[in-house]
Amino acid sequence: MRAFLRAKGRPENESEAIDLGPNSASRPTEIWGARLVVFMRTVSVLWLLQGLVHWKVILAPDRIPLDALPDALAAAIVFFAVMDLLAAVGLWLAAAWGGVLWLFAACGGTVILMFMPDFHFGGRFFIPINVGLIAIYFVLTWNAAQERD
């Protein structure tokens, strides 16, 4: 019976949900990879909220409507409204393209905040946060890659 279960891809021990192959219990866990996924999903929630704030400025402005804003500021708001939500989805899926879009959005947002402090409700306060998140992302990605090798 065990040979039949093994041939069908079912776990030999019924308490195991998935059979990961021979010596699956002795395989080391990928701690850095799990930390990277948790970090990506946490940042995903933050970027989703940030994207929704940009959409609020577009759809229901408090003070000045979008078309009355300077062209560069309006273009930046629309760009980041779309880019932040796309990056949030990619980060939540822990996809490589999500990390790339997020890095592009975070670096772009940091540069925009340096030159247009009125762009975001927190202003220059978000520059060290973005730089810190990018540094953490690179450290986690590096360690997760070293762990796989």
Features:
149 residues, 0% strand, single chain, mainly alpha, 5 helices, elongated
Structural features, described:
This protein is mostly helical. It has one domain (29-148). The chain is 67% helix and 0% strand. It contains five helices and no strands. It has helices spanning 2-7, 31-59, 71-92, 96-115, 126-148. The longest helix has 29 residues, at 31-59.
State the share of residues found in helices, binned by percent: 55-70%
Structural class: mainly alpha
Low-confidence stretches: none
Please work out how many helical segments DSSP would assign. 5
Quick check: average pLDDT?
83
Rg, Cα atoms, Å:
22 Å
Biggest sheet, open or closed, and with what strands and sense? none
- Report, as a whole number of angstroms, the end-to-end distance: 37 Å
- Silhouette: elongated
Secondary-structure element series = HHHHH
Q: β content, as a range?
A: under 5%
Integer count of domains = 1
Count of extended strands: 0
What order do the helices and strands come in, and which of them pair?
Blueprint: H1 2-7, H2 31-59, H3 71-92, H4 96-115, H5 126-148
Helix pairs in contact: 2-3, 2-5, 3-4, 4-5
Summarize the structure.
With 149 residues, the chain is mostly helical. The chain has helices at 2-7, 31-59, 71-92, 96-115, 126-148.
